[in-house]
Every structure is written in C-alpha cells, then in structure tokens.
Design brief:
8-stranded parallel sheet; 8 strands; globular; PyrdxlP_homeostasis; Pyridoxal phosphate homeostasis protein
Amino acid sequence: MSTIEKNIAKVAARIREAAQAVHRDAATVGLLAVSKTQPAAAIREAFAAGLRDFGENYLQEALDKQVELDDLPLIWHFIGPIQSNKTKAIAEHFDWVHSVDRLKIAQRLSDQRPATLPPLNVCLQVNLSGEASKSGCTPQELGPLAEAVAAMPQLRLRGLMCIPAPTEDPAEQRAAFARLRLLRDELALDLDTLSMGMSQDLEAAIAEGATWVRIGTALFGARDYGRPQ
C-alpha cells in the first residue's frame, strides 16, 4: 500500500470509531480530502484508493488540476475565502462551495452558475470565534443570509461550515461544533449538512453531527505553504 492509501485507511478507521462512539452510522460522515497545494498525482492516487470528493482553497491551482484530472469523475469543493472576481470560475467549475459568507458573493454565484448545470451546493461559513483573521458571517448575520441564499434559483443551500479557534481540549472542540449544529437547527430551513472538523479534531466534530470532515494533513502529510494562490 502507498502512504496515501495507508493514511486514507487510518482516517476512515478514525471516522468509523468516532461515529460508533456516539451511535452514528459512519456512512453519514463524508470524507472531504483537502488537496490544496497537493499535486494532481496525489489526487489521482487518492481517487484510486476510493476517494471522490476533493477540497481546494486556491482557485487557479484548482482549475489547473481539474484540467489535468478531467478523465476522473471527481467532485470538487471550494473551501477557501471567495473574492468577487473569482465567483464566475467557481460557479462554473465546482460542485460545492463551503465558504459563502456574504450576500454579494452568494448572489454572484447564483447569477453566474451555468443553467446547464444543477444548482450549486453551498454552505454558509460562520465565524464562531469572532477572529478577525477568519472569514465567515457572524451568528447574528446568519439568519437573514440563510433566508436570502435559500431563495436563490441556482444555489442549493445545504448547511453550515466553520473553522473554530484551534484548541487541543476535546470539550472546547465539541462546544464550538455544538454551537454550529444549534445555529443550523435554529434556522427554519431544511438543511442536511455540517461541514466541520479537520485532522486534529474530527472526533469532536463527528460527535456533534458533522456530515463532512475536511481532512488534509492526515491524508497527504504536511502542506507546502509556499505554493502560490
């Protein structure tokens, strides 16, 4: 087995064990491979090991890899901050967007989604900790934003996403993820998705209802942060 194949097996086992611990069906937790800064060859290897969903933060890098990998039936997720001048390409080339955090971006994605494609699956990113360095709407802004996005014809609002402040305390991890789950449940909308949890805290996220865990380091190893956006 290759290193990536072994890592996928290890992460899958962690997901199964975390789900079993809280009496959840592991099949309800999707593994989203965070492939930013990874070469197309690594994605091809992960696909061969059974993965289909890949998350990218940097648009041009993602588009280049999509061209190189267009022979594979991959599902592409955009998970990074979104600038207005990048919405058209995102709307045209991705299946999911997890990082919608303001009305202007949502409206552009809906307007620019080709009519020949199904509605774009979107999650609203919530900044739970109020960190200035992180994207995301505030919990107070969430309700009106969700109502507006849910009405957009070329978007399908699926749920919420968060990147909590890092902590190694499992109780603090769970508290943050529980808050996102409660925010989703308080919305008077039919939402089925919680995109939360990464390599270091996926167990806490699954315990609080995650339906996507976004895993990069545990699958591919440490990232090269020197890669251009």
